[in-house]
């Protein structure tokens, strides 16, 4: 399989010689326009970053050509879907992929009737034989895979309908459930699967991956920008990559704009490819740089001085007098459109790591935070909720 | 005759008067060829929609302005028929899924898949993808949001989404990580003044700098509201000066009256009186949250500083209740009663 990352030379070639890049440019035009998240989705198991334990286990099963039912769980952007798709591709190759793999996710109708009909029909279906010599390249083990993505949004009933199906057809079918919250999967299902926990990506791996992508796309990053990316995305690699792409567009996109006028023929498309690549190179050398600030802006991080301003307003002078100052700050905050959740998160970090507060105060304040978070999730009015939060904290700061 | 708000709505990114850097950013996104999914958020009246329409125009040219309204019928799993309105041009669709309440998932699934599975028909189109604009994305149910997740990835060659929301709090994390967040801050008062001045000049109305500034302050940095107030003032007065009073909306006047009532007397009889007025507001479709919020901010200046934090606390508490509960009047009344009690005990010198 021609993996995008296998030819690392591509990056080097592109960097040194703009003209030669056309040979190694992505094969299809569409790839240029793909979000990087899709473009750099791991093509094989080896490409999956940071989930060493899971990958080792899966690779061993790959060699043994036997697979258990699987349950992948972990926070968003850790590579769950990527892993199973990569595994399926390695197992079946492009030709058999369609007939052997059924992928259902929350965007498909997944009520109990679908489990009873579609899933069961697919599970029951006899295996088709791979074309001759195909087996030399891909293992093509004698079972099908049903991927149930976002399984935690399936109803309880639908999940229980799966129970017996999983067992009855286990000879020719394997299930892979993917979810964020393992607790939402009913026990009988969970006990039928071997569980794989996907941990949030650690700094090192995420950093390496982001740098790889930046290099491939000829994006120049300011020193420390990668760390900011990782901090803003909280272990969610997909988020980090989306941020990176947006930031890259932000600084260099105007020059990338390609002449789209009157495409003559198919040849034209290839030429456009070249120009696109060239433009990217020119971009890079021109020194358009992704700065820390631009990343923070995209991530919606509130500038430090704004949060500090609010904190300062909350400091006690006399309890009542704090109101005017706090109210003013909060009104501005809301009118500027900062998201309330972000305000709460950043305020929380400031307060919890503030050494001047006593533990007792912190305990009290943290309770307020939990209350406020719940209210925001329930969809309460942001202005009132934030104002309440700020005033309550201010009141607690005044207590000694 | 169109309202000023519509008449002077900027049509292109260049014509936008404030947040120049944001316009610049949107423009470069639109030109770069790989347009991402967007999640545009900000307070109302900040110009989210205007910016989106301008961006679409930047993407596709003036074709996006030729819109038609489609009425489509969707069938739920329980065989109920849902009627749903779609605003569409050749290049984009605009939907408000929260119109159909809990069935928004069905609409999202059916409609988006249908759009995503057909390629752009128009060969001369500038982009290969279609854009679906989803209004009020923060009111989408959890199920509907979950339905969006994989669709956004799988059909990305043919489909781009633009979600519009007032806040990102109700958007689930997986969606947030798949979109580019665009914050549209409310215009500053100076920005609003500039717009009002410009519009006034184009309409040939007398200039009143002080009045404009007062409108900007009263509008709470909401440009739409400011423009409507501006128009109202000019419609009611032949000649405006700096001192021309700005007529408040009826409902605001009524709430101010309620606040006075509450302050004047703290008795059950008074609650009864207030109730009639609250009912009046609700039956005129003023959202209960707006009522509570306005009432709170009308009451706050009238009371002692020491009480303010407490009142805000209970206001936020009952606002949350309104959101969760189903009978709004209960919670509004409860707030009134609570407020009276707090104030009374404070005046009596008791601990509350």
From TrEMBL, chain A:
CDD domains in the cross-refs: AAA, HLD_clamp_RFC
Family to which the UniProt record says this protein belongs: Belongs to the activator 1 small subunits family.
Record-linked Gene3D superfamilies: 1.10.8.60, 1.20.272.10, P-loop containing nucleotide triphosphate hydrolases
Chain ranges passing through the membrane: none
Protein name as annotated: AAA+ ATPase domain-containing protein
Keywords recorded for this protein, A-Z: ATP-binding, DNA replication, Nucleotide-binding
Pfam families: AAA (PF00004), RCF1-5-like_lid (PF21960), Rep_fac_C (PF08542)
Cross-referenced SMART domains: AAA
All copies of domain AAA+ ATPase, residue ranges: 66-202
Residue ranges, annotated region (Disordered): 15-34
Low complexity bias spans: 15-25
UniProtKB/TrEMBL annotation, chain B:
The UniProt record lists the keyword Membrane: no
Coiled coil start-end: none
Keyword tags: DNA replication
CDD domains: AAA
Pfam families: DNA_pol3_delta2, RCF1-5-like_lid, RFC_C
Keyword Hydrolase: no
InterPro entries assigned to the protein according to its UniProt record, in alphabetical order: AAA+_ATPase (IPR003593), DNA_pol3_clamp-load_cplx_C (IPR008921), DNA_Rep/Repair_Clamp_Loader (IPR050238), P-loop_NTPase (IPR027417)
SMART domains reported in the protein's UniProt record: AAA
Domain AAA+ ATPase: 34-185
Domain of life: Eukaryota
Name of the protein this chain belongs to: AAA+ ATPase domain-containing protein
UniProt organism field: Stereocaulon virgatum
């Amino acid at each position: 399989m021609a993996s995008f990352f296998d030819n690392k030379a591509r990056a080097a070639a592109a960097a040194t010689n703009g003209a030669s890049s056309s040979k190694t440019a992505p094969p299809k035009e569409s790839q240029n326009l793909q979000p990087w998240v899709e473009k750099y989705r791991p093509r094989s198991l080896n490409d999956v970053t940071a989930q060493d334990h899971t990958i080792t286990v899966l690779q061993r099963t790959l060699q043994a050509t036997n697979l258990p039912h699987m349950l992948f769980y972990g926070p968003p952007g850790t590579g769950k879907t990527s892993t199973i798709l990569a595994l399926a591709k390695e197992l079946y190759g492009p030709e058999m992929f369609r007939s052997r793999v059924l992928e259902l996710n929350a965007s498909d109708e997944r009520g109990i009737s679908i489990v009873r009909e579609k899933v069961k029909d697919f599970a029951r279906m006899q295996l088709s034989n791979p074309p001759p010599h195909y087996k030399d390249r891909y293992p093509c083990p004698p079972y099908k895979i049903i991927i149930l993505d976002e399984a935690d949004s399936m109803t309880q009933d639908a999940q229980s309908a799966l129970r017996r199906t999983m067992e009855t057809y286990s000879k020719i079918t394997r299930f892979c459930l993917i979810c964020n919250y393992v607790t939402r999967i009913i026990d009988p299902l969970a006990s039928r699967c071997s569980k794989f926990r996907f941990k949030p990506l650690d700094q090192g791996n995420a950093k390496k991956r982001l740098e790889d992508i930046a290099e491939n796309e000829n994006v120049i990053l300011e020193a420390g920008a990668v760390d900011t990316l990782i901090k803003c995305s909280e272990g969610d690699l997909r988020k980090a990559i989306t941020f990176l792409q947006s930031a890259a567009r932000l600084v260099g996109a105007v020059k990338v704009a390609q002449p789209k006028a009157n495409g003559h023929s198919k040849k034209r498309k290839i030429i456009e490819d070249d120009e696109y690549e060239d433009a990217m190179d020119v971009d890079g050398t021109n020194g358009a740089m992704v700065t820390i600030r631009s990343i923070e802006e995209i991530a919606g991080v509130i500038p430090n001085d704004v949060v500090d301003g609010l904190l300062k307003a909350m400091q006690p002078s006399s309890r009542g007098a704090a109101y005017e100052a706090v109210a003013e700050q909060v009104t501005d905050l809301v009118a500027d459109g900062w998201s309330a959740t972000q305000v709460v998160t950043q305020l929380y970090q400031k307060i919890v790591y503030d050494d001047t507060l006593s533990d007792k105060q912190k305990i009290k304040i943290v309770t307020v935070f939990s209350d406020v978070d719940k209210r925001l999730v329930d969809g309460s009015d942001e202005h009132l909720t934030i104002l309440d939060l700020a005033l309550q904290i201010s009141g607690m700061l005044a207590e000694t | 005759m169109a309202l000023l708000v519509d008449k002077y709505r900027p049509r292109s990114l260049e014509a936008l008067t404030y947040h120049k850097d944001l316009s610049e950013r949107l423009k470069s996104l639109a030109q770069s060829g790989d347009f991402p999914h967007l999640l545009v958020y900000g307070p109302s009246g900040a110009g989210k929609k205007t910016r989106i329409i301008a961006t679409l125009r930047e993407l596709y040219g003036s074709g996006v302005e030729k819109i038609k309204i489609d009425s489509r019928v969707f069938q739920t799993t329980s065989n109920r028929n849902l009627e749903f309105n779609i605003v569409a041009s050749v290049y984009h669709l605009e939907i408000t899924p929260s119109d159909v309440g809990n069935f928004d998932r069905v609409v999202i699934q059916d409609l988006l898949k249908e759009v995503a599975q057909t390629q752009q028909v128009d060969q001369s189109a500038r982009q290969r993808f279609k854009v679906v604009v989803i209004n009020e994305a923060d009111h989408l149910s959890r199920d509907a949001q979950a339905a969006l997740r994989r669709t956004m990835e799988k059909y990305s060659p043919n489909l781009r989404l633009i979600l519009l929301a007032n806040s990102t709090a109700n958007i689930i994390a997986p969606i947030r990580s798949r979109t580019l967040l665009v914050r549209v801050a409310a215009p500053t008062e100076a920005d609003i003044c500039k717009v009002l001045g410009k519009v006034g000049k184009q309409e040939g109305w007398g200039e009143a700098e002080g009045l404009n500034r007062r409108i900007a302050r009263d509008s709470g940095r909401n440009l739409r509201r400011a423009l409507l107030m501006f128009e109202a003032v000019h419609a009611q007065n032949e000649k405006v000066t700096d001192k021309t009073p700005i007529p408040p909306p009826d409902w605001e006047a009524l709430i101010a009256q309620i606040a006075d009532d509450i302050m004047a007397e703290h008795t059950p009889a008074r609650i009864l009186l207030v109730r009639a007025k609250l009912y009046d507001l609700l039956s005129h479709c003023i959202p209960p949250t707006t009522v509570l919020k306005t009432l709170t901010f009308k009451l706050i200046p009238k009371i002692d500083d020491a009480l303010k934090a407490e009142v805000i606390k209970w206001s936020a508490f009952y606002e949350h209740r309104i959101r969760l509960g189903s009978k709004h009047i209960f919670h509004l009344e409860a707030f009134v009663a609570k407020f009276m009690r707090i104030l009374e005990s404070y005046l009596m010198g008791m601990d509350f």
